[in-house]
């Protein structure tokens, strides 16, 4: 998978390139906003990792130009600026995700993979966690190699959780996404589905666990 | 002494006083001047009447004087007409000619030392007024008296004087009032740019340092003040920007090497060494983050009308912390009614405060227990843990910078709670630490006033903090 890394710190760029290459990415490194913008105009990348603090311009300018051109390539922003305002600006400029330095290489790779699995992306239609695999196109669930049949609602809940595995999915998000706006949602409908899904996963021997965070939402993680 | 605060009202008051004084004094002065002028005219008319008679006095060849008035004049002085009278006397006071019956003088008179002399007399129930003038006819000195009945005076000028107040005098006050109105309008126009600038200045604050007072249309007298204020604002903005830039640069300079180090550690093959180094770099990163947060707070000011939803903050912080909590075999929960709890404040900094409280609670709560964030309806948020609690003697100290109960414990510099305390203070809120019934500590934040706001749904978890 071809990845463009825009980072001006040579050592950091080299390290990231090594780590990302080990994870299977084909990495091109550029150090300035000008070079990055030029490369993005002429070549196609599957994903872009963009540092905001570039020597010639703010990385956001590269992103803004991409989006103005209608370039849909997913962009993950790296920033040393931790303020919420900076992050919101980044997301509003069309970034798909961001990481604040310093971060775990593992986290960066996981985020990049999650971005590549997004609907609209051609690659990575299969969501994997532990021994669970969900084919999001065929809507088919596998535990190990065994195909498992769950109800469409349960598959939908599982898909939302797997797309953000290791992170919390708000209960309100599930409510709004599982039911149309016109439908009346029972106050505990989501709880019932998650409860059922958890039981069914245990029954088929899945090595994943759905954690309930009371008043917040749910988080799926591989069993330790 | 009572003083006017507004320039316009001061002008109006002084102007009104001037109007009162002027509308009394000016008509009086005008009346007196007019009256004097009228009297002058009257005197001159009388003297002219006397002089009119003189050409008709002749000295006959026998030396005796002869008066032959034309009929028009004779009629004017006739007793039947009664309005005017004349008498011609010799210097000894003997009457030579008179329009009065019995050939009387109009008034007794002594020889004159001046060319003329006025007299007033009450006679036959009428007031008369006249003049005696001296004359010389053919070498003989004479005195001519002319008088007029004041009751029958039909001189136009007298009417004007008499009716001055009712006809003319009153106009002063309205004219002055009209001037006052014009003055007020002019002043309002002049003050308009200043009022507009004041409204603009209202919005200037640490969050909006780019605003400047407009100099266009500003009265020249006020311009120096506007210049001075704008220059002061320039310097303030410079200071704020310098501080903010320093914080941003420091963040970049500190975090990039940490990121390099972190990535290098992630590539170490020895998992035990990698983990131990990772722990070190994590506490280092935490310290850097907290120091940068403290620096950011130095220049941070809550914007006007900023509203933060405590309920949204609670769920976002919980979602952010959840993976860390679960990795330690602990969990977080948000309790309380599921509706928005808006307070006046900044979402970002309040989120940091709550995050620091939750991180602190997570560090102290026992394994397999829950850290509970609870949002009350009346602008309260509390974080409860199942840890050892905070002894009463330490409840003040824990909010000091770099305070730690156990200096040997790694991963904490003791800045978290002092950041919380600073943010809470900035918001005018209060924080208390209590024992949780059944063991543990409860940190509670209480906002002074509750505001009404629309309900918000939190979908985007983990956006910040």
Give the arrangement of secondary structure elements.
The complex is a heterodimer of chains A (224) and B (465).
Chain A: E1 2-6, H1 10-22, E2 26-30, H2 33-42, E3 47-51, H3 59-68, E4 75-79, H4 84-92, E5 97-100, H5 105-116, E6 126-129, E7 132-135, E8 140-143, E9 146-148, H6 152-163, E10 168-170, H7 171-178, H8 189-203, E11 208-213, E12 217-222
Parallel strand pairs in A: 1-2, 1-3, 3-4, 4-5
Antiparallel strand pairs in A: 6-7, 7-8, 8-9, 10-12, 11-12
Helix pairs in contact in A: 2-3, 6-8
Chain B: H1 7-53, E1 57-59, E2 65-67, H2 71-77, E3 84-89, E4 95-98, E5 116-123, E6 126-137, E7 140-149, H3 156-162, H4 164-168, H5 172-202, H6 223-266, H7 271-299, E8 307-309, H8 310-327, E9 331-335, E10 342-344, H9 347-364, E11 370-376, E12 380-384, H10 416-426, E13 430-435, E14 441-446
Parallel strand pairs in B: 9-11
Antiparallel strand pairs in B: 1-2, 3-4, 3-7, 5-6, 6-7, 8-10, 11-12, 12-14, 13-14
Description:
The complex is a heterodimer of chains A (224) and B (465). Chain A is of the alpha/beta class and 224 residues long. Chain A folds into two domains: 2-116, 3-Layer(aba) Sandwich (Rossmann fold), CATH 3.40.50.2300; 126-222, Arc Repressor Mutant, subunit A, CATH 1.10.10. Chain A has helices at residues 10-22, 33-42, 59-68, 84-92, 105-116, 152-163, 171-178, 189-203, and strands spanning 2-6, 26-30, 47-51, 75-79, 97-100, 126-129, 132-135, 140-143, 146-148, 168-170, 208-213, 217-222. In chain A, the strands form three sheets. In chain A, strands 2-1-3-4-5 form a five-stranded parallel beta sheet, with helices on both faces. Chain A has a four-stranded antiparallel beta sheet with strand order 6-7-8-9, with helices on one face. In chain A, strands 10-12-11 form a three-stranded antiparallel beta sheet. In chain A, a hairpin with a 2-residue loop joins β6 and β7 (132-135). In chain A, α2 runs parallel beside α3. In chain B, strands 4-3-7-6-5 form a five-stranded antiparallel beta sheet, with helices on one face. Chain B has a five-stranded mixed beta sheet with strand order 9-11-12-14-13, covered by helices on one side. Chain B has a two-stranded antiparallel ribbon with strand order 1-2. Chain B is rod-shaped. Chain B starts with 6 loop residues before the first helix and ends in a 19-residue tail after the last strand. The chains are: A alpha/beta (224), B alpha+beta (465). At the A-B interface, α1, α4, β10, α7 and β12 of A face α6, α7, α8, β9 and α9 of B.
